[in-house]
């Protein structure tokens, strides 16, 4: 990851919570601890944050606290071709007339293009997913209520009495910060709270993650592996991760790149 992108992610992180640890920044940027410490020192000198023991904090903390995690705009460019292939496979599971939930994220956002030809009822907490489908499809769209988090482009509510409880779905499609033996992992407690409500409204849970997500970890567990019905990922998945899903009884779908994407990667 380029230094400019790392600095942007670090500055966004310190605006989302009182203090961000070095380890949290390592996970967000997928960089070494030494690199992060150098970045913190640089940004401290530039007066863009304040270095503290074990991490950093904002010089001017916002009144409104955001979410921990990478911004949507940064995630969007990471493993882009794999995300498109994974999303296309996800839409193959959808039939006209289905009711589905699509959780906000950069991989699930790629579902909007093949979904344009479908006629379904779609519930989402993603502002860009809803906007695209409204403009370019005939699907019926329902948005969750709550606060719009600009960096991640999602709508979240901490309250139980929101519209989420009134929507039933055959399947829920979602991404995740990480996927490991203990289950799906996320980076923020509010994400966990909101996504658990959505999961409870669907019969099947389909997880869209590129193979890099199996190597990540987080301290917050969203749900156990056994709750997942299907995982769609790319051909880079390791044998041990395949075995992990098989033991948990999770269906695995491998999304192969198209010939065009393969030639583009080779170039």
Please describe what this structure looks like.
The chain is of the alpha/beta class. The chain is 36% helix and 22% strand. The protein contains 11 helices and 15 strands. It has helices spanning 3-14, 22-29, 33-45, 72-75, 80-91, 106-109, 112-115, 127-136, 189-199, 239-247, 259-266, and strands spanning 20-21, 50-52, 55-57, 99-102, 121-124, 140-143, 147-149, 154-156, 169-174, 178-180, 183-186, 202-208, 220-223, 230-234, 251-255. The protein has a 7-stranded parallel beta sheet with strand order 6-5-4-9-12-14-15, with helices on both faces. A 3-stranded antiparallel beta sheet has the order 1-3-2. It has a 3-stranded antiparallel beta sheet with strand order 10-11-13, covered by helices on one side. The chain is globular. Residues 263-267 have low confidence and may be disordered.
Topology:
Layout: H1 3-14, E1 20-21, H2 22-29, H3 33-45, E2 50-52, E3 55-57, H4 72-75, H5 80-91, E4 99-102, H6 106-109, H7 112-115, E5 121-124, H8 127-136, E6 140-143, E7 147-149, E8 154-156, E9 169-174, E10 178-180, E11 183-186, H9 189-199, E12 202-208, E13 220-223, E14 230-234, H10 239-247, E15 251-255, H11 259-266
Parallel strand pairs: 4-5, 4-9, 5-6, 9-12, 12-14, 14-15
Antiparallel strand pairs: 1-3, 2-3, 7-8, 10-11, 11-13
Helix pairs in contact: 1-3
Give a quick rundown of the structure.
By secondary structure, this protein is of the alpha/beta class. It has helices spanning 3-14, 22-29, 33-45, 72-75, 80-91, 106-109, 112-115, 127-136, 189-199, 239-247, 259-266; strands spanning 20-21, 50-52, 55-57, 99-102, 121-124, 140-143, 147-149, 154-156, 169-174, 178-180, 183-186, 202-208, 220-223, 230-234, 251-255.
């Amino acid at each position: 990851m380029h230094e400019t992108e790392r600095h942007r992610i670090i500055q966004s992180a310190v605006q989302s919570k009182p203090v961000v640890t070095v380890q949290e920044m390592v996970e967000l940027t997928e960089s070494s601890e030494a690199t992060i410490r150098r970045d913190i020192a640089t940004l401290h000198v530039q007066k863009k944050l304040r270095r503290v023991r074990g991490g950093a904090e904002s010089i001017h903390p916002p009144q409104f606290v955001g979410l921990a995690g990478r911004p949507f705009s940064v995630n969007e460019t990471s493993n882009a071709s794999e995300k498109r292939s994974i999303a296309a496979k996800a839409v193959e599971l959808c039939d006209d007339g289905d009711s589905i939930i699509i959780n906000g994220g950069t991989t699930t956002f790629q579902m909007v293009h093949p979904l344009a030809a479908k006629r379904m009822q779609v519930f989402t907490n993603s502002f860009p997913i809803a906007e695209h489908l409204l403009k370019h499809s005939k699907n019926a769209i329902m948005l969750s209520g709550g606060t719009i988090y600009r960096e991640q482009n999602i709508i979240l509510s901490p309250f139980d009495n929101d519209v989420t409880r009134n929507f039933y779905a055959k399947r829920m499609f979602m991404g995740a910060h990480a996927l490991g033996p203990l289950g799906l992992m996320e980076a923020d407690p509010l994400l966990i709270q909101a996504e658990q409500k959505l999961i409870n409204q669907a019969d099947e849970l389909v997880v869209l993650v590129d193979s890099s997500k199996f190597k990540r970890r987080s301290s917050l567990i969203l749900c156990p592996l056994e709750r997942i019905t299907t995982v769609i990922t790319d051909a880079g998945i390791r044998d041990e991760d395949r075995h992990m899903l098989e033991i948990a009884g999770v269906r695995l779908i491998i999304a192969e790149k198209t010939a065009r994407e393969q030639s583009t990667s080779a170039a």
